[in-house]
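Following up on my earlier thread - several people asked me to post the actual chain instead of describing it. Fair enough. Here it is, all 237 residues.
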Amino acid sequence: MKVKKIISLFLSAVMAVTAAATLAVSASAAGITDTSTEIESGKSYTETIKASSNKDYKFNVSSAGTLKVTLYSYFPKIFMLLYDESGTAVWADSGEASVGKCSTTWSDRSCSIFWSDAMENGKATFKFSVSKGTYYLRIHTNTTGGGKYAFKATFPSAEKESKITFTSFVLPMNVGDTITLGTDLSDTKQTITWKSSKTSVATVSKKGKITAKAAGTATITATVGSTVLKIKVKVTK
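Reply from S.P.:
Thanks for posting it. Predicted structure:
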């Protein structure tokens, strides 16, 4: 839709105070642990929300860093709040709207997007400083809001930072020998992909078991997400 005119997107001072007071009561952290849906870093979600309602989400941060939330609203006014695992609201470090306008200065620490009915949607990106732990994201509407919205949150995540650690490996092997490479995948749900560069010399199973077949050298590669480790095996008779 072509935008011919963007009318004022900020409420008057009286309306802002009223909305902030209402939000502080209806969007508290009470009960959020029971109503939240777990989300993944970097994945987009699209939902529909009614007026005067909440939608709650939960995620785990693996290490201190930055949470970035890009929020799309298909109705003129939407609010977003972030809570840590103690139920304390977290201030946003910044907010930048690419469509419409946004605010990070509400008294209850919520972020918001405002935009005109003459536009198709509002879009803004908010950034928060986070520490390791569990966080809760609440999407909130007041009496005049309601409709479809979408968002994507990126944050330090064990799923995005998969680590693979070999706890034991032996380079020299004799023909007929077998050895299983120990791994530690305690911080990720992902699986390892194993591969041998020369199966006539040494093969490797899906569980990391290497079998020496013939004299020579082969490289065993283990891949987890973007992490790749290689081990050179030398087989003798």
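The CA atoms of residues 165 and 184 lie 5 Å apart. That should answer part of your original question.
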